[in-house]
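USER: My hope is that you can spare some time for a protein that puzzles me. I am handing you a single protein, as its sequence and its fold in token form. Walk me, if you will, through where the backbone shape changes along the chain. The protein I mean follows directly.
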Amino acid sequence: MKCRNVKTETLGKLVTASRNFLVLVAFFSLPLAAVAATPHHITIALSNTSEAVNWYEEHMDCQTITGRDNAVSCGTAEIEFLLGATVGGSQGTGVDHIGFSVTDLDAKMNELENVGVQGSGVRLLRFDDGSLVRDIPGLFKIAFIFDPWGTKIELVQDADLLGFHHIHLNSVDPVASLDWYRQVFGGEAGSLKGMLDGVQFGDIWLLATEYTDGRPGITQGRAIDHIGFEVADLDEATVQMNRLAVEFQQEPIVPDNARSSAKQAFIRGPDGVLIAVVEPGWAGVEEEVFIADTSESTELYVPPQTPWGEPDLQGIWTADAAHGIPLQRGIDVAGTDELTPEEAAARRERGTLNSIWGYDREWRDTTLGYVKSAPSTQVAMVIEPSNGQLPETTAAYKEVVANRAPRIPPQRARTPVDLGTYVRCITRGPVGMMMPSIYNNGLQIIQSPGNVAIQKEMIHETRIISTEPREGFGEGLKTWLGDSHGRWEGNTLVVEVRNLNGRTSYLGSSEEMKLTQRFTRTGPNTMEYQFTVDDPAVWTEPWTGMFTFVKDDSQYELVEYACHEGNYGMTNTLSAARAIDAREAEAAAND
């Protein structure tokens, strides 16, 4: 870095950037820092704390903290988890990422690559040449991953400092920013391996990179919501910081629901970084769990009526609350009627992590924390048979399955028709289209005399269902979604679906399947959905599932699901299959 008139230029930038630094000229004449502090914690905002604890234990070798369920200890620093809505990941904010050091980075990245994005939700960042690890001569090997909630993490191989390694800032003026932290919190100015200028606090480095795309985003409301420093005497530190015109977002207090009597204050650092300053003994804040209202009214709910006298089901509904409910009752909940709110929240989060496919958090509705409905505590969808399990399949069906040609896996697909209708953006079928998933759970219902239109957000499918009396089901035309007849039974819309073309099978169902759907408003903002599958060619008896949609006209809007536009999945799947073919052919030729 060229060293011009650093003092003049740095002060000039700081003065024009923010009124908070008008008196920072005094910093350069101070022989010592205002207070002696140590990095204490990183606070990550996300949608579920228990799953975050598990993730950082499993992949970052952090440890649980006795008596706390929302934090882990990662060597000399803690990571706290904060429940709350966020607007994106850490990348591009004042705290771009955090760093951990491991003994063998190649082995670690190989381990994470084998885990993949499903299950644990580990997303890897590849360099331009496709590699996961880059060796920087004179420094160390580096790699990048993201946790499932958008926190960017740098993994390095620095044998001198293993475990939690560094906090990496974005700054319009890295020199001034690092000097601000040194003057306010202490630490020693130094150079990591003689290559990266920073401030060292014991075993933790504070590094900064120049941000050239305007100004970094503020941290509050992003994945890394804030960072925390511990001081021995917060009251004295407050006096010293006030003398230096440090901006306080919150004066020292013991927060509501605090786990200890230690005080906490918030200040604003350079480049929009929110910083907590805490006393010794700080143990975080007890989170309040969002509990769904499960109380049942003693009176039967009477839904509003349309002008023509039918029950009014119209509006925008979502199945976000039902995401995570398994179809069948698991062995682990054999004697359980209902989950606790904490168990339900963790289950929904696991459902998200098991199906994120490497997506950024901005694509995953329930991860952002904007879903207003609490996760359903329902144990399983299947309510008949009463044991919550699907009935036995027929002997004839078992024989068909035993003699069926193996399904062509994606890595062997020759043409698009070897792939499923969901991948090909055709349909999820009349049963699957209603099922909740990690995103696009919207359902819009519009009624007119004699007709009900039901539009599902995923793959933008719309069904126009006549409720006028009709005689029988036509036998000549079989379609992807079948032939739907509707009728009203009291306040319940009953829809019977037949004449399927057999190409939208659900769990092996045949084209002879008869599907009966029931939509019933159970409250001003709740609608029970039941579906009965009757397929004697597959199951020995009919079975019924159920879950609840929640009305959300105020904030939810069905947007176009442009499944094909920009969808590289088909091209990538087929090209990858051909690459595997070529690799295996070359290996065979060399044998």
The chain has nine helices and 27 strands. Residues 315-551 form one domain.
